Amino acid sequence: MDLLLDGLSHAFALILRGDPQVMEIMWLSLRCSGLATFLAILAGIPLGARLGLIRFRGRRLVLGVINAGMGLPPVAVGLFVSIFLWRSGPLGFLDLMYSPAAIVIAQVIIALPVVTGLTAAAVQQLDPRLLLQLRGLGASRRQATLQLLTEARYALFAAMMAAFGAVISEVGASMMVGGNLLHRTRVLTTATVLETGKGNFDIALALSILLVGLTFVVAMALTLLQQRERRP
Questions:
Q1: Residue 144 lies in a domain
Q2: Do residues 104 and 39 touch, judged by C-beta distance below 8 A?
Q3: Domain-located, residue 10
Q4: Rounded to an integer, what distance in angstroms lies between the CA atom of residue 96 and that of residue 154?
Q5: CATH of the domain at 85
Q6: pLDDT by residue (tens digit) across 54-113?
Q7: What is the pLDDT of residue 73?
Q8: How many domains does the chain contain in total?
Q9: pLDDT score at 209
């Protein structure tokens, strides 16, 4: 118990004085996970909308693959990305291994099925008569899709929160493709694992508190945006 109290005391001291190393790790985590979530949203929402609206042969199989992808183990994603980005791999010439870009790539792969699957589910739950009404009013396919996504916006905000939560909290992929290099690829999760292994529980607790706090702030911001239009 004393170890926990001392660790918490040191952790809050590090946070309150703005320890440069801790702040650097926090901002890198936010940049990588924020960019990965944005890219996943950019690709996942249109893809999910199409899967939710268009009927084609093999659609159930595609949806099944995407839904299974929502539970992809981060270490498996990290291994897959490492094989491609390694010097002898197909994309080795890009020299992205052990860089923030590699972390973003891995996190996009983790977040994309989450956004796509939840978007497809949200669109499928809409009243099918709404699409018929929009088509009857002369809306183009693009206009109808945008209107349907507007109707499903609350579920889309939930998809964004789930995607960000999945990537900000993962450790396996970031460790494998980033290498946990100080001042380069060390993020909150990988740094927490490292400091815990070294016995630096105060720093590990500080990093964990920042990780939880960062996740809470982003989730709360999205929740406020989600619920703002629900007010009478």
A1: yes
A2: yes
A3: no
A4: 36
A5: 1.10.3720.10
A6: 888 888 999 999 999 998 899 999 999 999 999 888 998 999 999 999 999 999 999 999
A7: 92
A8: 1
A9: 86
Angle at 45 between CA 170 and CA 48, to 5 degrees: 100
CA 63 to chain CA centroid, Å, is 20
Asked, for residue 232, whether it belongs to a domain, the answer is no
Summarize pLDDT for 135-150 with one digit per residue, the tens.
676 777 777 777 888 8
Instruction: Quote the percentage of the chain above a pLDDT of 90.
Output: 50
**Does 131 map to a domain?**
yes
- pLDDT attached to residue 58: 87
Domain extent for 50: 24-227
Cite the DSSP H helix spans in 125-200: 128-136, 141-151, 153-168, 172-178, 188-198
Distance CA 4, CA 8 (A): 6
153 phi and psi angles, rounded to 5 deg: -60, -30
A 10 A CB-CB count for 29 gives 24
Alpha-carbon distance 218 to 215, whole Å?
5
Pair 160, 112: CB distance under 8 Å: no
In the chain, the N- to C-terminal Cα span, in Å, equals: 48
Task: Retrieve residue 160's tokens.
Answer: 């964004």
